[in-house]
Amino acid sequence: xxxxxxxxxxxxxxxxxxxxxxxxxxxxxxxxxxxxxxxxxxxxxxxxxxxxxxxxxxxxxxxxxxxxxxxxxxxxxxxxxxxxxxxxxxxxxxxxxxxxxxxxxxxxxxxxxxxxxxxxxxxxxxxxxxxxxxxxxxxxxxxxxxxxxxxxxxxxxxxxxxxxxxxxxxxxxxxxxxxxxxxxxxxxxxxxxxxxxxxxxxxxxxxxxxxxxxxxxxxxxxxxxxxxxxxxxxxxxxxxxxxxxxxxxxxxxxxxxxxxxxxxxxxxxxxxxxxxxxxxxxxxxxxxxxxxxxxxxxxxxxxxxxxxxxxxxxxxxxxxxxxxxxxxxxxxxxxxxxxxxxxxxxxxxxxxxxxxxxxxxxxxxxxxxxxxxxxxxxxxxxxxxxxxxxxxxxxxxxxxxxxxxxxxxxxxxxxxxxxxxxxxxxxxxxxxxxxxxxxxxxxxxxxxxxxxxxxxxxxxxxxxxxxxxxxxxxxxxxxxxxxxxxxxxxxxxxxxxxxxxxxxxxxxxxxxxxxxxxxxxxxxxxxxxxxxxxxxxxxxxxxxxxxxxxxxxxxxxxxxxxxxxxxxxxxxxxxxxxxxxxxxxxxxxxxxxxxxxxxxxxxxxxxxxxxxxxxxxxxxxxxxxxxxxxxxxxxxxxxxxxxxxxxxxxxxxxxxxxxxxxxxxxxxxxxxxxxxxxxxxxxxxxxxxxxxxxxxxxxxxxxxxxxxxxxxxxxxxxxxxxxxxxxxxxxxxxxxxxxxxxxxxxxxxxxxxxxxxxxxxxxxxxxxxxxxxxxxxxxxxxxxxxxxxxxxxxxxxxxxxxxxxxxxxxxxxxxxxxxxxxxxxxxxxxxxxxxxxxxxxxxxxxx
Length: 847
Hints:
Blueprint: H1 9-17, H2 33-36, E1 42-46, H3 53-57, H4 70-82, E2 86-93, E3 98-105, E4 108-115, H5 122-128, H6 139-155, E5 162-170, E6 174-182, E7 188-195, H7 202-208, H8 228-244, E8 251-260, E9 265-273, E10 279-287, H9 311-327, E11 333-342, E12 347-356, E13 361-368, H10 375-379, H11 392-404, E14 408-417, E15 423-432, E16 436-445, E17 449-461, E18 466-475, E19 478-487, E20 495-506, E21 515-530, E22 533-547, E23 558-560, E24 567-570, H12 575-580, H13 601-609, E25 612-624, E26 635-649, E27 653-665, E28 671-683, E29 712-713, E30 727-738, E31 748-760, E32 797-798, E33 804-815, E34 818-829, E35 839-846
Parallel strand pairs: 1-3, 4-6, 7-9, 10-12, 13-15
Antiparallel strand pairs: 2-3, 5-6, 8-9, 11-12, 14-15, 16-17, 16-35, 17-18, 18-19, 19-20, 20-21, 21-22, 22-25, 23-24, 25-26, 26-27, 27-28, 28-30, 29-32, 30-31, 31-33, 33-34, 34-35
């Protein structure tokens, strides 16, 4: 491709005036000095096809006195060339003061095409290039577009890309522009090294950064693609990590990248100077504002004497103090932290200085880049608006909230001077990203068997900030659907309204002899009390019923339909069917009931009672200081929940549950986890149902089967169902450690743990008066255990307060297919009738 040379008119005129001999290039004309003295009387335009004559003439504007002198001609020539509309512009003198402007127009682009691009679609490349179909062709612009396409491929990790533009001439001064692309192979990061890190291992620091090393599963993610901007951002992430852990003098000196032609990838090395680790020696508060008590800010400080110096705690303290000062009427108060290091004692004395800042107001808030998201969705994340006092802490909080929305790839808030010295303009620059998800998920667990789910969700519905999700689940033992909707700002208040409609079916399996069907609806309100404290209020109304497999409704040789009322012909299974389903055809109880077992009395009673409606009010209080919700290594998570059933409906109770998890880093990348949990169910008014009781197993003490712990029916002719309990407690200690011999990107780590807990105090039905024994499926008549006429067998059950305990090992895999966990636990103490399950597996995927 050839590019023409253009010479500016002003330079040419200078050469002429000094009499220097030159050769006229394309786009310029030589005019004799005698011609310069002539006055221009008219302008004639030649060679134009699309551009109007008057448009070209308008570029030649007379100077002072109304004369078109040489300076004005030079400016006109320069302006015409810079329009990019012309290949060539020539200026000549005619007779009688005539100025002749001869132009050769640039061709029009008929079409733009891309060839050889497989990884990036035509639509994306078309949006990035400046050359457009039916637009003017410019060689300079084509060169710029070529570089832009190559840069897009480099951003996606393909540094061997080759882009060649080709121009195909067409009739009527038109051209076709073809970009031929050789994409090349993906250029990844082959190794990540750290130099100078003594306090933290390289394994731990790889958790901090976003760049990843290439591995066999890299095709499922993009973190291993070399991106210089990401590497530069990783430098700041490393620095922030050290500052959070007391290293106030840390410097990430450099991030060196080197291309390795043998490995065909980049080696990245971060050079770190850690410095000493500091603790907080003292915390002081000072104020230069009259009548402002600085000590009143102590309650808003998150910095404590003796703790590790943490720059994030300092920043959050500054934010809280500045906002509180604004609430008290000091709108321009500025909190500036200071620190004096004691290099010998390795302590930092932190001082919060509260001063009167400049009286600056917000003139406007300009939003840029939100093509889909409505303006009000963005503006409501600000606690300030036009006309308010400028408060940097509130601006930083708004930026953090916008990032947390997860609607944008990037958010940056900057300031520009306003119309006066005391005015500023806030500029909010955003780059939107896709917020819709369609997923097909699959998984398997020893509890629910194989499971598949199809879901579609949208986090920013119609650009209004609404969340909606619909999902369908179908599995071996669990099925159902759910619809969810969330309005995060109810009536323009920072209160989230959620609506959930769901239907679930749990089938009988090897752990429970009965199934359940649940259809429910639950509205909820969510409040963020602080960044680490949230409250949810909810109302739940759901209908629930028990179902039994047919072979458990065959007492007295009568099989019943699913409604448990209509009798069918006698159930006489063949020997082949009995063997296939583990049934015995022997009549061992003298009543004609097969000894395949009968469901427990509470199950049969609730089956006969039919559908039950539960109407409950509840709330959840959550305290969360985890450093990472998906893969935590430090922090505390506490959930406290209470539900009161009895606001109408057929059921009444008060259920309270608390679950606390504390993570702390130990030594050599080992993370310690302490978990405490407890629950209590209180009877209010009517009797408790068995379904309302807590059911526990590996969710409390690993090594036990689902529903394997606690009170159990001991009927020798029954299925010996777990009855559940009204009280439980559990405690777990776990150490999670990486496999240092494996690459970090594999995502594997091991765990060792010890669990202990107990479930007891069954308060459900223990006897039952039958009104129609024949139509009560699974009811064993009173002749088995004589009590009174028409009474079913009284419930005999075990409810010993035995402490269950176990020890075990686990394998945790943060795989690209989703989180997977394998556990092998051995019970140490257990109840006489508990059921164990030493191996347990669970996990899922989205593809």
